[in-house]
Amino acid sequence: MFKVLTCLAIEHDFRLVLVAGVICFVGCFTAMRLYSRMRTAGDPAVRAAWIFLTGLVAGCSVWTTHFIAMLAYDSGLETGFLPLGTLASLLIAVVFMAAAFGAASSAPGRAGKVAGGVLAGVGVASMHYCGMSAYVTQGALSWDLPIVTASLAISLVGSIAAMFVAQDAGTRRLQLLGGLVLTLAICGLHFTGMGAITVTPDAAVHVPAQLLSSGMMTLSVALIVSLIILTALGAVLIEGGANAQAVERIRRLADAAYEGIVVVRGDRIQDANAAFCALAGAEVAELAALRLEGDLLSFDDEGAPLDTRREGMLTPRGGGAPIPVEAFARVLQTGRRTGEEADLVVLAVRDLRERRSAEEKIRYLAEHDGLTGLANRNVMQSRLAHALEQASVSGDGVAVICIDLDHFKEANDLHGHLAGDAILTEVARRLRASVAAPSFAARLGGDEFVVVQIGGGEQPAAAAELCANLLEVLGAPVEFNDQPLQVGASLGVSLYREDGETGEALLANADMALYRAKEDGRGGYCFFKREMDETIRERRTLARELRQAIVQEELVLHYQPLARAQDGEVCGFEALVRWRHSQRGMVPPMEFIPVAEESGLILPLGEWVMRRACADAAAWEKPLRIAVNLSPVQLNQPNLPAVVHEILLETGLAPRRLELEVTETALFKDYQRALDNLRRLKALGVRIAMDDFGTGFSSLSTLQSFPFDKIKIDKSFVENIHRHDRATAIVRAVLSLGRSLEIPVTAEGVETAEQLEFLRGEACAEVQGYAIGRPAPVDALEGWTDEAVRKALAG
Fold it and tell me: Is the pLDDT of residue 20 over 50?
């Protein structure tokens, strides 16, 4: 060590030593910057170019340091340099340094760092001692091998340390530190190696003449290498500026995005846009120290692949309720290509609160009565079926109580629809207050309600107690505009197992009991009794007479017009069947259609209606559409498409003019067969409409399963427009849904000008109801001119 320090202090020109050190540090720092840029290059050709430039700058810096330091060395004898050896040392430096940085960036983990450091250390040592072989002086050189070994150790250790720093040299501070460590390694090897030589003067040694003086050679080499370093540094700065501008543009675009965008490597957040920061409740600087999964996000399916949609919860840093989100991930950069240990992944994080709220609102509206908020018919049937399944196992009692309000029609007619709505809303409130879970109440429509009592004690005592309580509660007056409205109720009760084991049977028997309670004077309750089977016998008589009526053609069709809401032009008619009984007179469809469905007559009845309607429509001058309702039994008929095809061929009606209307409940019996029939009918060219939309249990999933040509809003919602906010919201939501799905919407039951004006404003496609026209026989259709309908719409 003393010999090395003596050599440096006595035999070197400190000015040139300083120049060599400065050039070495600047070159090494520039190489570190180039190396940092090289590691982010994804294209192999661009990456190779950056490796070459990094090796050129680092190799030239090493060689220049050695060359100028050799010029600073003064042994007191005449000296010179052999050109071939000097150039060879430069080539060695460039090749080894390029190989070192390439190996460090290619191999993952510590292996790459050690390999790069070893190559750099060997390259620096090879360059130095190759350059020393080109050094000629008037004397003989002898080497101190222990000091030579020490110089090699300094070169290797320092170069490996520099590569470990360089592997993470993403910041200016680390680049400066890496350059300094590599400079110390290079200078340490050179000056230690110079201390290892001893020159013995020998006048016989011939020293070749130099073309330039030592000062001129120093200046020339320093200028050339400085130019190379500055050129490389300029390239880094120019590209860095361009990259900074591009990054700024990308950040502005990312910040403009509605969705949150976050970039992670491994499990650590690297960057995020403004939307994600707002969701997380923290700035980017705070988020950069966090793990995305664990500190912020938790996914429902942790093991799902990156490129799938995943849902989870985001916990804001500032506190507050977790936010439901969905995330989509993509690999932005592969770690194996960039030398990183993990991939760079970008995630798009979407706030689901608004969508969940909208879905919940639509789901609520689809499952509840729009006016009262009670469960609708389909939800009631589903919950009743579930209660019966549980009761069959547990042995608990189940009672079905049908409720019909007494004098409701009188109050509604006398005080108006608003009073009727107030009564129904108050009745629903009282039912909710009187029925404790798991029992529940539902509204079937109009003034008809159902209470399903689950458990509650021994039957029939528990049902009798609940009925007495309900009669007392519902018998209290309802206040409307500071005026008491007296409305009572009649109740019919059926019990599980005693009166039926299915929901349909219990509802039917409870309805029979309700009918008997109303016949007995109203204001009371009645349990179902087998004597009520007389009603069933009456229905069987009606079924027998209906069979004869189909054969003897006592049935007639009436047609109700459908018109475009905006201009009032008639675009079609709906066929409605009527029964002109020889003794009973005109039997309403509400009486004989259920009988037809129960007795199986609905199939010949439905076929007759379709055949007659198609034949009448084919004779019209204008090619207007004809709409025919399909019952659940018809819809599940295996040969339904063949029957429809035969009728179209027989009557000559174009398939596009026939529109078949199905209710969602018609799909429930055999969902797959019903969908298959609908698809086959649509393949014939027949239009398919969903009738009574909004009353089903899963209308949205049904729309997703089959591309309907039309949606018909149930009249129970239309008649409550402007009378109840929930009904209005349902109609508006269905119309908006239709526009989103590009499905025309028809509003049924339009009776007032206010309803028409609202439907026009909401871009409803078609309207149907008494405001347009009542059902009429086929020979009266000529009176339904477009002008007449327009006047009706305008009035």
Answer: yes
